[in-house]
C-alpha cells in the first residue's frame, strides 16, 4: 500500500480507497519484459491527471491494465474505493470507467450517429440486452445527438466513420467514451497526429467536458505545453515505473524527471 | 452479468483419470492385437498410410497459411488433380507410373502457379475469410472442370508390377503400393523439414513468416519465396494425389473429403507448426482406423453390441478436433496469437 | 554529393498526409539526428526512405549514393548499402541470434564475417543460439543493430534505438553508434526523442514538426537554443 | 451500407413526402413482400424457365441464406455447419409427423426449439474462438449431425434413405404432382403458403438486424475490441446471434420438409453448408437482399443453364452466330464458381446485389444530372 498522504510531495499518492481511480502494485509482464512495474496510483475525484513518459515507458499498457483490456499480472485496481481488479473489461464502462484509444478505433462502416448511438444504447441497457423489438435508429438518438453536439460533430452525423478527417475521428472517439456516461475517463493521446489548431480545439473540448460533467480525467499526452497548461497533477512513468507524481511545477523542478525524460540537458557524457 | 464461463480453461490435475484412460487404451490395444493380429496390423498400416497422405496435403496447407495467411481451400483440388493427371498420363497416354509419379505433381505445381498469380496474390494481407472464400470458389471450379474433362464416374489406374503385388507379413498381406506410399511420404516430409530448418532458403522463409517486411528490408525477395513455397506445397499435394489414386482410385469427391480432413490435421496440430501437422496427421489417421477395431473388440468383450457403432471411423477426426480445441485452444503445437 | 539526399518528400497514410516536404541529407561518415515530438513524422520519414508498405510516398526525391530509391523495391535497398534498425527492433522472434545475423548476411553484397560482429557485440556471442524472443529489450536492440551492421552498410537508419531502455544500456548503445561510425565509417541517421542521446552521438540535427523540417543545427546550437527545444521537442 | 437499415439521408427528408419516407423506411419489408410473390411469375416467363416448380425451393433457400447472413454478414462469423440447423428443422418436423403423428405446427415448434438449444450449446462452446477455429468447429459439429442422422438412432432418422413416407401434414393435398393447401374449406396453391411463410421469416430477420440487438452485432463485427471497451459483452451477443440464426434456419428447414415431403440426408451434408456460403457471398453479404439474390441466381442458374443448349446471336430471328453450349453449360457450377471468385477478389462483401445497386445508383445519378443540366 502506498503511504496515506495528502499528496503534496512529488512521488506520493493519496489513499486509493478515497480516490476516484486507483491502483496498488499494478504490474503487467509480457514474457521477459515488464511493461508496467509495481505502479501505485490514486486520482482524486475531479482531478485531471496527465501521464507522461518517454516512448516505451508503459503508458498505454497502464491504461490497458487499468481498464482490464489486458489482465494485470499483479496488483489491484480500485474505482471509487471499490476493488475492481477482476471486473471484466466490458463491465467497467457500466461502472463509470471509460476510455478512448490512441489509434482511431471506431465502428468504421457505421455512421457517426450510429457509433455514438450504439454506445448510448449499451450504456442504458447493460453489457447484454436482447432488445429485439423496436427500431435501432429511433431509440437513444436524442442522447447521441446531444453528445455529438457537445463535441462539435452534429453536422457530420450521417458521415460514415471511416470517411471522417483524422481530427473528427478523434472527436468521435471522445464522444463515444462520453456516451458511456463516465465518471472517470481515460484519454490516450487525444491530440496525437493533429495540427496545432485542432490540438487547441481538442484541448478546449477536454477542458469543457471536464468542467461541465465534473469528470475525473486521466490523460496520456506528449505535448508538454498541453500537459503543463491543463493538468492538475502529473505522473511521470519511465520503464514501467512511476518516477514522480506532482503538480506541473513540482514535476518540472524534479531533477530525476529532468534526467530521465526531459533529455538530461545538464548531464555530461 | 457475465455468468457464462469461458470454455477451454481446464486444469491439469486429472492425472488419475488420465492414467485410467491410458491404461484402458493400452489394454484394448493389447487385446485387439492379440485377438485379431492380422486385422490389427492392417488397421495400423491403413491408419499410417491414410495419415501420411493427410500430412502430405496438410504440409502445403500449413506452409501457405503460415507464409501467406491464406486458408487455401483449393489445396484439396490440387491433390485431386494429382490423381487425375496420373490417370491422364498412365491410362490415357500410356506413360509409365514412374514418369507419372514425377510429372503429374510437377503439372499440379504449374496449376499452383496459375492459382497464385491469378487469384491468391490479390488476397495477401486481406481478411483471412476472403482467402478462404475465394479458394473455396476455386475448388468448386476445379471440381467442375475435372468432372467435365474426366467424367463423374470413379477412375483407377494400374500400379506397376513391382508395386501391385502383396507382401506377406505372416499374419496378413499388405499391398506394396501402401508401403511405397509410406516410404515416399516419409522421404518428402524429411526433405521439407530439412529444407525449412537447415537451409538458407528455409531460414529466409521462416523469417518471412515472422515479419515479412523486416525480411525484405534485409534484402530477401519474399515474393519469389512465396511463389516457390506455394508451388512446392501444390506439388506435394499432387504427389499425394498420385499415390492415393494409384492405391485406391479416384473420384471427384476426394477433393472435399481430403481438404476438410487436412484442415482438421492442421488445426489439431496447431496452425503454423509443421511438426504439429505431422503428429496430428498420424494421430488422426491412427484413430480413424483403430477406433472401429477397438470398439468392436470392446463390444465382443462386454457383449454390448451397441458399442460397435458402424461408420464411426469417419466421425473420429472431427471428435478428435473438437476435444483438442476445447482443451488446447491453439491445437497441440500451435503458437500464441496466430490467426486468433 | 551527399550519401543520402531527401528533397521535398511528401508521404501519407490512408488517413491523411503526414509529410509535407521533408528536406534532409546525410554525408558520408556522418552521424545525423532527426528530432521531433510524437507524430511529427520521424518514423514516417524513415519508412518512406526504405520503401515500407506504408506510408505511400506522394512526391519528392529520395537519392542514396546517386540511386533514386523511389525506383527500388524494399528488398533492393540493402544491396545498395542502406540498412534499417526499425522502431521496436523487429528481431525475428523465433529465430536464434545467429540465425537473425546469418539471414542478414546471406542477402548482403559484401557482408562482414560473423566473428567481426562477435568482436563488436561480445554479449551476443554468449547467447548465439537463443531465440531472440527470450532476450531483454536491450539485448534485442543490440541484435537489431548487429543485424544491420553485418550487411556492411554505408548508412544505417536507426529509429529510436534507446526507446524504453535503462540508462546503462542507453550509454552502451551510444558508444556502439560512435564506434561503428568511427571504426567502420558507417553513416548513421538517428531518429530520436531523447535530445541527450542525439547530442551525445550526432554532429548535426534536424528538427521535424508537422511533417516539415523546421530547423537544422549543430549540437552546440541545439544545446543553447532552449526556446526551440521547448517549442518543437516539448523539452 | 444503408440498405441494412434503410437509413434516410437528412438531405432526402426534405425532398420526400411523408408517404415516401414511410416507403423508404419500410422498403425492406415492402421489397420482401413484392419479392416472395413475384419469384414464380418471373421464373415462369417463357424467356426464362417457362415453368415455376423451382420457385418454392428458391424461396426457402432464400430464407435459409438470409438466416445464414445473420452470422456472416451482420456478426462476421463464418460457419461451415449451417446445414445442421436446416437439417434439424426438416428432420425433427418429419419425425414428429411420421413417427409420432403429431400435428405439423407442434412438430415444427419442437424443431425450432431443438435447433435453438443445439445452437445455443454449440455457440457457448465455440463463440469465442478465432475465425478459422470457429469455422472448423462448426464444420465438425455439422459433420457430427450428419453422422447421427445417418446412424439412424432408434430408427428415428431413417439412415441413408431419410424420412420419406407419412411425413406430409394432413392439410396438404397433392394433385398431379402439384401441392395445394386446404385449410378450413379454403384451397390454395402451396406456393402462396411458402411465399407467406418465407415473408414472415424475412420480416423476423429484418426486425432482428435493425433492432438494437442487431445493430450491436454489426458493431461487434466492425471492431470487437472497441465493442468490449464500450461495455458490450461480445461473447453473449455472438452466442445469441448463432442461436437465433439457427432457429430461423430450422424454420426454413420445416417448410422445406413439407415442400420435399420428407427429410433427406443430403440436407445435412457439408455441401449444403458450402452452398449457402456460396450463395450468400455471391449475392453480397453486406446487404439484406444480397443472400436472397445469391440464392436466386444459384438455383435459377442450375435449372436455366442446364436446360440452355444453343446460344444464338444477336437475335433468334437473325441468327448470325449459333453456338451449341449444352455440353459446356451442364457444368454451370464452374461458371458460377468463377463469378464467385471474381466477386470475392474484387469486392468481397458486395456481390451481385452490391453490383446491381451501384449500377442502378449510377443510372439514377446520370438521369438526375441530365435533368439538372436541361
TrEMBL record, chain C:
One GO term of the biological process aspect: L-amino acid transport
Keyword Mitochondrion attached: no
Keywords for this protein: Amino-acid transport, ATP-binding, Nucleotide-binding, Transport
Gene Ontology molecular function terms on file: ATP binding; ATP hydrolysis activity; branched-chain amino acid transmembrane transporter activity
Domain ABC transporter positions: 4-235
InterPro entries recorded: AAA+_ATPase, ABC_transporter-like_ATP-bd, ABC_transporter-like_CS, BCAA_Transport_ATP-bd_LivF, P-loop_NTPase
Record family assignment: Belongs to the ABC transporter superfamily.
Protein name per Swiss-Prot or TrEMBL: ABC transporter, high-affinity branched-chain amino acid transport ATP-binding protein LivF
Species in which this protein is naturally found: Halogeometricum pallidum JCM 14848
Lineage, highest ranks first: Archaea, Methanobacteriati, Methanobacteriota, Stenosarchaea group, Halobacteria
UniProtKB/TrEMBL annotation, chain D:
Any Pfam family matching the protein: BPD_transp_2
Subcellular location: Cell membrane
One GO CC term on file: plasma membrane
GO molecular function: branched-chain amino acid transmembrane transporter activity
Transmembrane domains' residue ranges: 26-43, 49-72, 79-98, 104-123, 132-149, 190-209, 237-256, 276-301, 328-347
Signal peptide (residue range): none
Keyword Membrane: yes
UniProt protein name: Branched-chain amino acid ABC transporter permease
Keyword Cell membrane: yes
Main location: membrane
Membrane topology, from the record: Multi-pass membrane protein
Keywords: Cell membrane, Membrane, Transmembrane, Transmembrane helix
